[in-house]
Amino acid sequence: MAVRVLIVEDEEQIARFTELELKHEGYEVSKAADGRTGLAMAEEGGFDIILLDIMLPELNGLEVLRRLRKSSDVPVIMLTARDSVMDKVSGLDSGADDYVTKPFAIEELLARIRVSLKKHSGSKTAEEESVITFGPLKMNTAAYSVTVNGEPIELSKREFDLLSILLKNRNIVLSRDTLLGKVCGYDYFGETNVIDVYVRHVRSKIDEPYGLNMIQTVRGVGYVIKDE
Ligand code: CA
After folding, report:
1. Distance, CA 169 to ligand 1 centroid (Å)?
2. How far apart are CA 72 and CA 221, in angstroms?
3. How far is ligand 1, taken at its centre, from the CA of residue 34, in Å?
4. Which of 13, 26, 139, 175 can pair with 132 through a Cys bridge, CB separation 3.0 to 4.6 Å?
5. 18 CA to middle of ligand 1, Å?
6. Distance from the CA of 87 to the center of ligand 1, in angstroms?
7. 177 — phi, psi (to 5°)?
């Protein structure tokens, strides 16, 4: 059965584009162009995931989410304007599962939808969920351990978090902003180049000693871990 998605977005162009891409991927899509309609549709139920813009007429997205959470734990991904850190913090505080910064790459949105749906369905066992294998690399997120060719690698907490986010989004380019939010927290206000520093550290431990090139730089965009 098709996964049902509700898009609550007043910018017609974004709503339409997202709808087309999601339909192309086999999702069943409904749309609402204001907060009040979106809330009513969401409360009626029947959706597997909701994409919720924050700046909406009638009721804003945060208010929609706050009210919806009284009766529903459906996964919600917030669509936020670029660099509005407060929106991200408030969204996550109000019970959003994730957020995507506009303008977003459709691949990133699709990946986040998959992750949210998977988290929500909890269909995998804890053991399956915690082991990620990627070529010669093996990560156990429960045991906080990483090996390359079976050799244990020492990573700091943030290096580990960075690598785990890249691995969970393999072959998808993640922006520095996205990585920064995930690794340092959505309320991090320091230098954004800390991500470059962590990437350098992780590469020096998992790539360079083994002559590998798993973590790659996408100039002007961010980073990706890629099957070679
Ligand atoms: Ca809007």
Report:
1. 27
2. 36
3. 9
4. 139
5. 14
6. 13
7. -60, -45
The owner of tokens 């749309």 is 31
Q: Determine the Cα–Cα distance for residues 125 and 57; give it in Å rounded to an integer.
A: 42
CA of 19 to the centre of ligand 1 (A): 16
Query: In the structure, how many helices (H) and strands (E) does the chain have?
Result: 9, 12
pLDDT digit of tens for each residue in the chain (228 aa)? 689 999 999 999 999 999 999 999 999 999 999 999 999 999 988 899 999 999 999 999 999 999 998 888 899 999 987 666 666 667 677 788 888 888 888 999 999 999 999 888 765 555 566 888 898 999 988 888 999 999 999 999 899 999 999 998 888 899 998 898 888 877 777 776 889 999 999 999 999 999 999 999 999 889 999 876
Structure tokens at 60: 């804003």
Q: What distance in Å separates the CA atoms of residue 184 and residue 194, rounded to the nearest whole number?
A: 9
Cβ pair 4, 48 in contact under 8 A: yes
Q: In this structure, is the dihedral angle defined by the CA atoms of residues 143, 214, 115 and 183, taken in order, positive or negative?
A: positive
Phi first, then psi, for residue 124 (nearest 5°) are: -85, 155
CA 56 to centroid of ligand 1, rounded, Å: 5
Distance 157 CA to ligand 1 centre (A): 36
Around ion ligand 1, which residues have CB less than 5 A away?
A: 10, 53, 55
- How far away, in angstroms, is 9 Cα from ligand 1 center? 6
Within 10 angstroms of residue 87's Cβ, the number of other Cβ atoms is: 22
